[in-house]
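Could you join me in thinking about how sequence relates to backbone shape in a protein? We need material for that, and I hope you will provide a protein of your own picking. Once you have written the record down, we can walk along the chain together:

…
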Amino acid sequence: MKTSDFNYHLPESSIAQTPVEPRDSSRLLILHRDSSDVEHRVFCDLSLILHPNDLLVLNRTRVIPARIFAKKETGGRVELLLLRRRNELTWEALVGGKGLRVGKRVRVDNGPDAEIMEILEGSERLIKFSEPIEPYFSNVGNVPLPPYIHEKLNDPERYQTVYSRDVGSAAAPTAGLHFTPQLLDELKAKGVKIAYVTLHVGLDTFAPVTEDDPEEHKIHTEWCELPQETADLINQTKQIGGRVVAVGTTSVRTLESAGQATVDDGRQTVPTVHSLPSTVSPFLGPTNIFILPGYQFKVVDAMVTNFHLPKSTLIMLVSAFAGREKILKTYDTAIREGYRFYSFGDAMFII
């Protein structure tokens, strides 16, 4: 297996620059794993496609307005992109600007001072603010859009899911951007259960794999939680023959982290032809799970996801779920059919 096996050519015109309105009017490509058949639908059709007793698992993380501008003592401009909060005052951040060595100080526009405490990898730095930065977010923070989006986003809430709650992500769980409150109500009325997990998304999730062998790629740790209520709903769904449908690769990684931890703890029964399906226990803590082809999924039965960047860990994850050749063939179909790719693009439902 090589990283180049997950490459494909995408015309720049296929990269979505703005979200569609309403959210659930985006297109939905359905891929049947068993037959490789493809259907072309609209996202709001999900209420017709999901079955009663299915369980939809959503990541309720909320993107922090983590793009902040500051000035050096010399007056030079600096950009800070906050990635992870270590404690009340200290953050890991990507920095844009020259000469940001240990001990250098900057002042956030209309905000507190900050000092470079440690040089991490590349342009990452550990920075310490003179006071907590969170109270300043509403005035100094900007939602950090991916670099391939060049259009201005007029409404920052369009880069948040309608059910976002737990602040902590550097990027949105974009598969969830297609849901509206009305669609969620329709699904509930049909008998589809809704459950929540939290995974705070780091930018490293979306970074391309640069190693020739993907197994040599170091995936960064992200914090996630699968609460008891969600574990109970998963176990009930499995026992009555429903499907656990993960919305987004972040939900997949949370579910499978919990599933793997349950196996490692000896609490999960590996299913056989005559046994009940596997169960999952609550999970809270860091995960660096890296799902590559050959991985045996323990919890997820189907997934809703967007179209991902070439050679990324995310296209490797969906390839593990559906098969690399099927995914690449389906991506070619989507390009020919004019689907919109990446964060503000259209969606897939892999069953």
